[in-house]
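Task: sequence in, structure out. Protein: STAS/SEC14 domain-containing protein.
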Amino acid sequence: MAYRVSLDTLRGIIDVRYWDCVPVEQRQAAFEQTSTLLAEGAPRRILIDFSGARQTAEPLSRVSDFASRLAADEALRQCRIAFIGPASSRFNIALETLSSARGYAFRRFFDREEGLAWLHERDRARVPRQAG
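Result:
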């Protein structure tokens, strides 16, 4: 297994990390674990870290089918998703394209801390000034 899905209660996120070669079957398994956490009431913030991973050569149809399934998932549509990886990574192009077209709140980052900060942007609502 070249992934780990965990609920980080301190940061209020679902933390998905991949390393080594990651075939679609393992990405599918990580998605199912993430879906279970969301169904149990986990925060709607997901950090997906591909920094230590590389994609395996797989048929485009398999990758596209998986990306379509993710892009159609209603629970994911309610989440903010930060993808972390090197600038040279083309790991999630199909998913990012479909997600963008469907209006998902996601963004790519090259730095984990920047991704975490973005996931919590909405939590920092402005406090109205008191009159007087």
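Helices lie at 24-39, 60-71, 74-77, 93-101, 112-119.
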